[in-house]
Structure formats: structure tokens, C-alpha cells
Amino acid sequence: LEEMKRSQRVALEFSSLFQINQQEELGSGQFGTVFGGVHRSSGRRVAVKVIMKSRFGRKQKEQLRSEVCILQIIKYPGIITLEAMFETRDRVFVVMEKMQGDMLEMILSSRLGRLSERVTKYLIVQIVKALQYLHSQDIAHCDLKPENVLLNSVETDFPQTKLCDFGYARIIDENTFRKTVVGTPAYLAPEVLQKKGYNKRLDMWSLGVVIYVTLSGTFPFNEGEDIAEQIQNADFMYPSNPWREISADAVDLISKLLNVNIEERLTIDQCLAHPWLQDQQLYQDLQALERSLGISYLTTSMNTTTLNTNNNNNNNNNNNIDPQLIHF
Predict the structure, then answer these.
(1) Count of domains in the chain?
(2) Which domain covers residue 76, as residue numbers?
(3) Tens digits of per-residue pLDDT, 228-264?
(4) Is 53 annotated as a binding residue?
(5) Same domain, 227 and 261
(6) Which residue from 212, 241, 287, 289 has the fewest beta carbons nearer than 10 Å?
(7) Active site includes 203?
(8) Buried b (16+ CB within 10 A) or exposed e, 222-241
């Protein structure tokens, strides 16, 4: 009876603060369906992930706990903001800031099915800076792919990007190696497939795949064949169409990221210092974005601890989020 009363109180609290628009389905993922919604008092648009607890197994519960834990401790303009979480007897409501699309949609809807180097650099450097922040906190994303890079606008070639979906993320320091297989097959690093142990550099491999896909519109590895074997041998090529139109610096960066040897693969700081991302036009494009947002976090010092991470435009302090309260 007490549990039922508590569940009713939480449901009332949620509905008093937020309204879900069930006609606006934004997508569905491993943790449920995401709908558009509104913060009632401010009118601010939000995204609400609605999770049916009855469909959850133990693994999914742990992934949700992990995602909530990690999103609680990270505050960075290039990472999606978790605003609140409410749990009733049969459902969990996870409230996040609302974005307008994702990088995969941007690639697929482009005229050539791939993006120009200028636009790709602009998107990639934002992803790299977000990863740099995560890695400085000893967090690996573990599922980097275009679908998990959200955009603040679909009306421009130069949107702000934010990383999302931290269900597979892990806390891993430089000397720690994990062995659990995580992530999406086409973007998995060879050491994950081999179960030899992995560290934060698995994100760098995934980043190499993301750059390859964004510039060419195709995967480096043929999904119709034994993709695991191809990945473990770094068995990929740069076909003349479209790679003859793409700079040698871009190819060099991808090749240094898609390196089977973990120790030789670029770190996040080495990636950021690569010549392909040292570009005056890129710097100007990023400065324009910072001016439009009113925050400076992309063109500042590489020292992530000094970054301006004051991206609090929702006045929410996450006080009602406690992953230990996920009881199901």
C-alpha cells in the first residue's frame, strides 16, 4: 500500500512539472521510447524517455543505473543534460534537454550522402572536445556513433553537437582494462571483440569510423562479410570514389585512429593536435558557434579543467536524481 501511495505521489509530481506530447515521438532506444515534452512553468521544451519497467532485464537495469550515474557527474556543454528522473511502480521517466536531430540524419539527408570536409571537421572537433572532457574524468563513452551525436538545429550545416546515450559508458582510468563487450558492432574496436581488455582508446577507434563514415557515406568495413575479422585486421581501404576528393590529412588521421595496436592509436589530445583539426577556417566556424551560444568552450585552452562549462540554461540542479532509487 505504501509503495502504491509513493508511486502515485511521484506520478503526480512528474505530471505537475512536465507534460508529455505522445504525438511527438522522437525515437526509441534500448531504454524505451522518447517523446517531446514541455516544462510546465517555463514552457521549455524537453525530451522525456518513458521506460516500462516490466520489459527490463537485469542487464538493462544496470545500464540505466550506469547512464544516470554518469550523467549526474558530468556537466559539459557538448554533452546532453539530464534534468530529472521520476520512478513510479511500473515506469521510469527520464527528462533530458531536447535537441533537434542527430548526425546520422544529417549525413543521410545531405545531397551526396556524405558531408564536406569543412562541415565534418566542425562536427568532429566538437565530438573530440566532448570526449576529451569525458576522458579527463576517466569516463569512456563506449558507444560512439553518429546516432549518438545530437544536433541543436537541423536548419544549418553548422549546428552545435552533444553526445548522448551513456548506457554503455564506463569509468576507466588509463591503467585500467575492461573486458565486457560493449557498443555497436560496426564501431567496435578490435580489442573489444578479442576480449583482451580495453581502455579509453576504444573511443578513438570508434571516432575513426565516425570520421570515415561522415566523409565517405560508407563504412570502412563490409557488414555483409565477417566484420569482426575485418576489424581485427584493420582490413579497410580508401576507394578512389570519393577519397580522391578528400585531403591526405583526413586519411592520415583516420589511419592513425583505426590502428589495431592500442598503444600506437592516437590519444584524445594527440587527435586534437592533428594537422587536420588545426585549421583557421575551422577556428572561425567554431568561434561563430560560441558567439551564437554565448559560451566559450571549443576554442579555449586544451586544458579541460579550465573550460567554461556553465551551460545551465534550465536552472535545474538534478537534486531529485538518485540512481540508487531505481528499485526495479
Answers:
(1) 2
(2) 17-98
(3) 899 999 999 999 999 999 999 999 999 999 999 999 9
(4) yes
(5) yes
(6) 241
(7) no
(8) eeeeebeebbbebebebeee
